[in-house]
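Sanity check

After download, print the first record. It should look like this:
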Amino acid sequence: MGIQSALERVQEQRGTMGTSDGGVTWEAQASGTLQGLVGVGFVNGRLGWAVGHGGAIAHTSDGGVTWEAQASGTAEGLAGVAFADGDHGWAVGARGTILHTADGGATWKAQASRTDQSLLGVATTDAEHGWAVGHSGTILHTGDGGATWKAQASRTSQILFGVAFADVQHGWAVGYNGTILHTGDGGATWKDQASGTGQSLFGVAFAAVEHAWTVGQGGTILQTSDGGATWRAGASGTVEDLSGVAFVDGEHGWAVGHGGTILQTGNGGVTWKARVNSSRQNLFGVASAEGQDAWAVGFGGTILHTGDGGATWNARVGDSRQNLFGVSLPHGLHGWAVGHGGTILHTGDGGATWEAQASGVDQSLFGVAFIDVAHGWAVGHGGTILQTSDGGATWRARASGTAEGLAGVAFADGQHGLVAGFGGTIMHVADGGATWEARASGTCQVLLGVTLADGRHGWAVGHGGTILHTGDGGATWEAQASGTSQILFGVAFADGESGWAVGNEGTILHTGDGGATWEAQATSTGQILFGVAFADGENGWAVGNEGAILRTSDGGATWQAQASGTAEDLAGIAFADAHHGVTVGFGGTILRTSDGGATWQAQAGGVDLPAIAPESPEVRPRFPAAPRSRASDDEAAIRLLSAAG
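Expected structure tokens:
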């Protein structure tokens, strides 16, 4: 497992949460980043930093009321952050990354770690002394503010996830398989301590030289009151993995973890109480500097704050730069966009503003379809199918019966729908989504787009110029001759006869007879086209990489380029009528138009969570690992392993 998986575990939904009443209540705070946040640190009730995927660093100087992004100078995932005071701090991450600041993060500079091992935790006691831990038992130490970092002998090859120092001499490091190491001489020597567990330990915190706590897999909480000579298991009351722990004194502390888990203790860990927050995102780090205030960070840039000691936590998300892959606009005002890491965004004002909705999953979502402002479906990685009947206020997972990635979804009405995906997968439903049945597509090609003109006629497109058609609601499928071998990413029909398919190298195909014949239409672009939408038989749009937008007002007889104002890849497009439309894409890009695309305006999204691929799938990651790299899944969703990708 690498920082990738470590970061995936520490990053599932974007945000930060804080408390100012000891955790009685927690409120979500806008982190200013869409990246999954893995580590957080505060030096007092005002000054704090959070780090995460893609080199993300967010800083607050007002206790988390506002957060600002800081330029890290790296795209490497960052897993840990620690500050000695308001100016001096370190952040560590993938491939031996160590960043240092001496001005509160106004500038960050890389320091030479002399290792390519991913670093997952960092601790400091003053502006000169710091320790970093990571893969293969790596422990690094600096005594000169990071000018030089030297390896310390850990005597273990286990992954170390967390490190904490009570003073310049006494510290602990924790990791895989219940590993606990302790030093009483600043790390000159590290000795193994018996944890009594084989569960991996992800976080460690101290209240004094003798008192420390560590948390990990399966709700594990261990405590020592004799400097680690003995560790005692505590009853956490949860089986969720716990990723972070913090204590403000010897009595009051918090532990956070998977599924938005937040635990609080007021008696030194003798008992723990679960606290409710408004986010179910995986949480990876927690910090408290004084009093009742604490902050937790997690997936998708999540930041939570509590001001009552952790009794209550509430989440809120800010703008998103998460890759977005699909969009549906059933109404001029209401629309939904889906993307990386389970991202679902909703607009109720035609795209002027977007808010995140809780999908309940961390799988990337590639397609979305709504038939009205209440009823919708979203599909994605690992056979994920989600359904809502209240406009996305709640989303319910549906059993798809497949583990294949699902790239497209289409519904003709509230009952009849189709999904298409990897391995030639086609699923059909006739009861609104309660039960899905696999249909024989007759191909093993990856299918990337699907549309349903009515309850009977539908089409699916994909690799190798594949076009499939059904005339009986999806019960049977037959291939249609596309006349191309280019990958086709999107398909749209204005009615049962007129349709278009788009793909690699600016390919646009058109049929006027339900697909009995397909003919290429001339375009002025060689860009990959990922999405297509038609408002009627004449007015249509296609979008693609590097911000490409094409528009036709004559059924595709001619296509003209429109100025998108972005260089980001655009993956999905939807129009409510001939004037009002939305397109979405990479980096959280959302563009909207109210004049048929004559002008496009960038809009702010609502969540972001870039992910990193696990390096060692055999090791259970600090953060939940997907069967394969999410970054790779996203590329597969858009470029679908195409040679052009």
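If your output differs, re-run the checksum step. Summary of this record's structure: The domain at 3-313 is CATH 2.130.10.10 (Methylamine Dehydrogenase; Chain H).
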